[in-house]
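quick one before i forget lol
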Amino acid sequence: MRGEDEQQLGVFSYVSPEQRVPQDHPLRPIRNMADIALRELQRRFNKVYAKTGRPSIAPEKLLRALLLQVLYSVRSERMLMEQLDYNLLFRWFVGLNMDDAIWDATVFTKNRQRLLSGEVANAFFSAVLKQARQRNLLSDEHFTVDGTLLEAWAGQKSFRRVDENREPPAAGNSEGSNATVNFHGEKRTNKTHCSTTDPDAMLARKSRGTGAVLAYRGHLLTENRNGLVISTLTTRAYGSAERDAALLMAESLPGMHRVTLGADKGYDARDFAAELRHMEITPHIAQNDCNRRSTVDERTTRHAGYRISQKKRKRIEEVFGWMKSIGLLRKLRHRGLERVGWMFTFTAAAYNLVRIRNLMRGTPPPQCA
């Protein structure tokens, strides 16, 4: 027979969020690995927070909520708080009970700022990477480096001359603060112009024939066995940023023996290759022999390992694609090099968590005490 479309509101609920989430849900291994990483950050949290005063949002809950924002592409903190209010899966992952009140979006953002000064993102990234090393998922011989352009949250109208008189709009101006600006035909460079809303952003273009945008540069160092991120760095978008960042990250490569470092044609420069060889790193760089002589000759290209590195190095593009499409980095939502770098590193840690879960699928994860 047909059932009645009636709803009887219950007074009590005897099912917890832990019981609601299936045991084989893909978020469970990520939550378990995140909890293990957060346990290693307890001393750092104690240094950041005062011992007296009104309790704030627990840093563990704060980072789990930010992790959800990255994993589920939630575009704002306000929408994240809305999801936490009625989404049982989100409440379980963060560690909230059914009746716990949800934080105000402004309060959540203010509490997040405290973690920026503590370099928590780097510590969380290192703790996740430690678990990958314990599972024997990392290579200590072959690596890849690359960089990408991160479009800043600043408009072209804010890119003005440094010596320009920036008086506020006159009273009665119908256009208000968003006045019409015609900068076509004007020569605009990073030496003479600067963004008024995001001074750290610089004018840059992805390649020839594309438009220049205000941006930063994000750099990754990955290992070639499983494509996990080993190191991250965020810089301003100046010309040689990719090679400079690659050398800085190459200095922290693990292992005591000679390693290889793959890269695309943009890294085929004499000084860069010479510095890598000085650090006892074999440069497996794609040859840029267009009207010039490549720094990588047959002494390197004749080996089978070079050809393998050229195939493996393209995995790093998958990381950039995930961070931009899923991790909300296609258009930055934060301003300033420090905040952008924090989110870039934290998003890379989220990618590593997803990648480790996929690699270890079918094997039981270690339990968090």
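fyi The longest strand covers residues 213-223.
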